[in-house]
Amino acid sequence: MRKHRIVIGDTTNPLFDFDNDQLRQVDTVMRNSYSGDELAYDELSAATYAGESWGLISNELYDLYSSEGYQLVSSPADLSAEVPVETPVRYYVDGALRGKYYALPADRENTLVYDVIGVSAIGLLVNRPHVGGLYNLVPLSTVLAEIINGAFPYGYSEEAGSISVTGWLPYSADARENLHKLLFDYGVMVYKNANGDPYFDLARTTLTGTVDDDDVYVDGTITPIEAATMVRVTEHGYGRNAIRQHHRRAGNKQAGCIRTGTRTRPDRNRQPGY
Length: 274
Known about the structure:
The chain contains four helices and 15 strands. It is an alpha+beta fold. It folds into two domains: about 5-120, no CATH class; about 130-265, Phage tail protein beta-alpha-beta fold (3-Layer(bab) Sandwich). Strands 1, 2, 3, 4, 7, 8, 9 and 10 form an eight-stranded antiparallel β-sheet that branches. Strands 12-15-14 form a three-stranded mixed β-sheet. Strand 1 and strand 2 (about 15-20) form a beta hairpin. Helix 1 packs antiparallel against helix 3 (about 175-185). The radius of gyration is 26 Å and the shape is globular.
């Protein structure tokens, strides 16, 4: 059985440290944006049996419960006093760091279960303004520092940090938009270092890791046998009678057309022509 662990706060003196016995469920969404419409960020939702640990099971806060233990009538509770917003949250699997997140306001499911919700560092830039401006041969490292403005720790390679930025960034109420524009214009990617913090570097083409059996390796690349010149994506849709009828009437016998799907028992009541 895999060992899952959620550490909230500093690793040496955490606010909370949950292991398998205290975790009901952990959901993560891990994204990489190479040329998308926006700069994506990772998300975490961890259901923890934390009610007693957080000291919030009290008649002064929650007055009426159902027989199953669900809250029926309550007065507000300020969870930020226990886990302030943007507190670091680290997720480990079998002792290896799988992701570093920053806490959002927690949700209470019932008297015992709290959902710890977090986003990765890039998510902290949402709704943070950046004034933008005109740049003339300004190092990319300087523009990065201006956009991030101390929101989270990060690193960058010498090659990426020394790129000269010339151009214009608009005023934006979402600093993430300007960071996305900057990185896209100069071919810089967002990776993660060993601490789980963003690391800005040029796009890599070398093998960075291997995938173990029954595991998922995040942020790896694969060296192909030969350079790719084209990527083709085919989307399939399936329907039984309608597609079969269409193929028969159209006489679809094009080379390379492969019929795939599940075998079904013939419909004895089907109409002629199907």
